[in-house]
């Protein structure tokens, strides 16, 4: 870790938008799962029954992001990024990467939340309503995982071919 003098210019690498870390997504999913498990544990009777379309929307988002990832990856590989007509504008590529980061977080929250609900439902064999809600929780949890995967793919697709982080941590990159 390097220390800077007060008033010194910030390191440009400190402000760089990096790839989403899987450990961060796991932490988000665990926190969301615990929160939803606690919420549903004490308030299950006041919730309406769960329907499977409520989690199915995540599949639509995942499909859109996978398709967008293939389009962006083809443009990046073909070096078809620029300001000319018909090219992918660099700001649009940055926005797509941010969409991927935000969607990965949303998918982690969705997966964790649905998994927390599912854990409660699997442990509650007394109520018929709990058994009836299990398929919706499974659909939602898998949809959250699908969205995380699609979002990470979308984010990966935005990397430039000569990006030092493309193959690893950038340790073998030439110093600036």
From TrEMBL:
Pfam families registered for this protein in UniProt:
DUF3180 (PF11377)
Transmembrane feature ranges: 25-44, 56-77, 98-122, 134-154
Q: Does the keyword rRNA processing apply?
A: no
Q: Which UniProt keywords apply?
A: Membrane, Transmembrane, Transmembrane helix
Q: Is-annotated flag, keyword Electron transport?
A: no
Give the matching InterPro entries: DUF3180
Name listed for the protein in its UniProt record? DUF3180 domain-containing protein
Q: What is the lineage of its organism?
A: Bacteria, Bacillati, Actinomycetota, Actinomycetes, Mycobacteriales
